[in-house]
Amino acid sequence: MKKKMAVLLAVVCAISLISGCGEKKDNSEGTENTSEGTDSADASGGQEGAISYDVEECVKLGDYMGIKVSLGSYEVTDESVKSTIESTLASYPSYEDTDKTTVEEGDVVNIDYEGLKDGVAFEGGTAQGSNLEIGSNSFIDGFEDGLIGKKVGEDVKLDLTFPEDYGNAELAGQAVVFNVKINKIVNEVYMTYDTVTDEFVASNFVNDGYKTVNEMIEGTRKQLESNNETNKQTDTENAIFEELHKSCTVTMPDGLLDQRIQEYKDQYVQNLKSSYNMELADYLGSMGMTEEQFNDQVQQYIQESLTNQLILEAIAKKEKIEADEEGYTAYMKDVVAEFGY
Question: Confidence band (pLDDT; 50, 70, 90) for 122?
Answer without folding.
Answer: very high
